[in-house]
């Protein structure tokens, strides 16, 4: 890092007096030197001197840091992606037993469900949805923008953007595209394994003229892959550790289709540590809390849901949370009803259940989170006129984005006296976990609607926190 501090100090004045042509030439050499050797420093007079920082211990240390990047199958939604983060955090913890690895947070964007028109929803940093310092208390993470800024000065980065001299070593990774085995399980036997294999699906990366791989890369056009390999993988996330440690030499490695890997230990301590560290961004919690107070007569003191920002200190006793005087409902529609799933109710069936729960728990208010289309929403309002919904104005939506609104919906459902969700929805599952963290009685949490004609309506599983 010292090396770059020196660059930052000297680059700026040196550039000011250079003519554009000369400037570009110098910059070009600068970039090449940085990328190829990274051991050269710019001296006071703007010339290059090689070899200085190669002896600097700080630089040597900095070079030892390795970065794990990942991405998920494009059609997957927000809440499965949150689950994949847990798997990757677990892998990074394993890698950190052998070296200094950092997890790079994949920017949010281009999600299928984020359909609000006219809102720019790509390259969204995690800080818009989560408290990054809370994540960091679990495992070292870095936002993507910080990662590409990395060892390069802000000045240099701006210059690169302006002149489109795009190659940044930091932003290039060996890309490993994970996939299942083409042949499935051999002999019907499950075993954990990883092998380099021909790509099963069409590769979503293509080579450019310079020989680098272009791909989605969260909408960052300057990011490229140095090489792309398909890996068939079957097993828990950490089975990749030996390969990443011993066979891959690039500083940064990206796992695409990371959802292929399973949890190291689902619902174990490490799982829950990571899950608990995924604290929602403060501004979203505040908006949710204000809404609860204003429309649902719900405050943390009355509801015994006092939160601790420091997740490492939040350890609520099971059954201690009371929750606000309202029923929380997550009613997943859209693709869940298009498939005519038999475990999803009709609106009429859902309203009937809602009314019976309100009666049973003596609740006069009901908060409904749903992705229902406008038509269904109108129908729902007709049948359940008293329902309360969080309805952002366009200005709010532009600020919070679809992801922020979804989190606020989840936060409000989390604080309800009683919650009922939709079968197999990861959106509902995340609410279960959040309520578990706050210390709700499991009976008030692990509930789901049944389909109108569903015979065996199995209720969700209670996963207890391991502290
Ligand atoms: N605001 C809001 N968005 C929702 C709700 N239900 C679904 N969505 C949107 O639809 C997406 C559903 O995808 P996903 O997160 O994968 O959950 P799943 O498909 O239900 O397992 C969410 O990420 C939201 O963008 C809801 O109740 N409120
Ligand atoms: Mg989904």
TrEMBL record:
Known role: Catalyzes the reaction that attaches fucose through an O-glycosidic linkage to a conserved serine or threonine residue in the consensus sequence C1-X-X-S/T-C2 of thrombospondin type I repeats (TSRs) where C1 and C2 are the first and second cysteines of the repeat, respectively. O-fucosylates members of several protein families including the ADAMTS, the thrombospondin (TSP) and spondin families. Required for the proper secretion of ADAMTS family members such as ADAMTSL1 and ADAMTS13.
Localization in the cell: Endoplasmic reticulum; Golgi apparatus
Entry EC no(s): 2.4.1.221
Organism this protein belongs to: Anguilla anguilla
Pathway noted in the entry: Protein modification; protein glycosylation
GO molecular function: peptide-O-fucosyltransferase activity
Residues of the signal peptide: none
Family matches, as Pfam families: O-FucT (PF10250)
UniProt similarity note: Belongs to the glycosyltransferase 68 family.
Annotated Gene Ontology cellular component terms: endoplasmic reticulum membrane; Golgi apparatus
Lineage: Eukaryota, Metazoa, Chordata, Craniata, Vertebrata
Keywords, sorted A to Z: Carbohydrate metabolism, Disulfide bond, Endoplasmic reticulum, Fucose metabolism, Glycoprotein, Glycosyltransferase, Golgi apparatus, Signal, Transferase
Catalytic activity: L-threonyl-[protein] + GDP-beta-L-fucose = 3-O-(alpha-L-fucosyl)-L-threonyl-[protein] + GDP + H(+); L-seryl-[protein] + GDP-beta-L-fucose = 3-O-(alpha-L-fucosyl)-L-seryl-[protein] + GDP + H(+)
InterPro entries per the UniProt record, alphabetical: GDP-Fuc_O-FucTrfase, OFUT2-like
Domain of life: Eukaryota
GO biological process: fucose metabolic process
Designated name of the protein: GDP-fucose protein O-fucosyltransferase 2
């Amino acid at each position: 890092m010292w090396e770059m501090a020196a660059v930052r100090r000297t680059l700026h004045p040196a550039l000011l007096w250079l003519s554009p042509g000369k400037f570009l030439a110098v910059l070009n050499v600068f970039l090449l030197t940085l990328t190829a050797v990274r051991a050269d420093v710019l001296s006071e007079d703007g010339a290059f001197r090689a070899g200085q920082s190669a002896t600097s211990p700080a630089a040597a240390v900095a070079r030892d840091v390795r970065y794990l990047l990942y991405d998920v199958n494009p059609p997957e939604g927000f809440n499965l992606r949150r689950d994949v983060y847990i798997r990757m955090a677990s892998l990074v913890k394993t890698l950190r037993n052998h070296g200094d690895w950092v997890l790079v947070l994949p920017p949010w964007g281009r999600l299928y469900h984020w359909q609000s028109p006219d809102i720019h929803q790509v390259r969204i940093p995690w800080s818009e949805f989560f408290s990054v310092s809370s994540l960091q208390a679990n495992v070292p993470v870095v936002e993507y923008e910080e990662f590409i800024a990395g060892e390069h000065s802000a000045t240099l980065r701006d210059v690169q953007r302006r002149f489109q001299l795009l190659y940044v070593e930091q932003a290039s990774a060996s890309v490993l595209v994970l996939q299942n085995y083409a042949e499935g399980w051999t002999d019907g036997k499950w075993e954990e394994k990883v092998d380099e294999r021909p790509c099963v699906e069409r590769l979503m990366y293509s080579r450019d003229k310079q020989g680098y791989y272009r791909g989605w890369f969260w909408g960052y056009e300057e990011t490229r892959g140095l090489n792309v390999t398909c890996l068939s993988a079957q097993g828990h996330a950490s089975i990749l550790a030996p390969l990443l440690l011993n066979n891959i030499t690039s500083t940064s490695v990206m796992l695409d289709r990371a959802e292929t890997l399973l949890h190291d230990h689902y619902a174990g301590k490490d799982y829950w540590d990571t899950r608990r560290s995924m604290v929602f961004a403060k501004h979203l919690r505040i908006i949710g809390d204000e809404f609860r107070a204003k429309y649902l007569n719900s405050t943390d003191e009355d509801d015994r849901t006092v939160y601790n920002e420091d997740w490492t200190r939040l350890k609520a006793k099971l059954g201690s949370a009371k929750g606000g005087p309202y029923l929380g409902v997550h009613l997943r529609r859209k693709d869940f009803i298009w498939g005519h799933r038999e475990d999803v109710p009709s609106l009429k069936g859902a309203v009937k259940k809602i009314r019976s729960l309100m009666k049973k728990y003596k609740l006069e208010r009901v908060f409904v989170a749903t992705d229902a289309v406008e038509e269904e929403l109108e129908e729902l309002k007709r049948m359940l006129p008293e329902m309360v919904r969080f309805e952002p104005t366009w200005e709010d939506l532009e600020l919070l984005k679809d992801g922020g609104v979804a989190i606020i919906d989840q936060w409000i459902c989390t604080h309800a006296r009683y919650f009922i969700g939709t079968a197999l929805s990861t959106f509902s599952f995340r609410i279960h976990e959040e309520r578990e963290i706050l210390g709700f009685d499991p009976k008030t949490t692990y509930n789901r609607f049944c389909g109108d004609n569903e015979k065996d309506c199995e209720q969700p599983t209670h996963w207890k926190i391991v502290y």
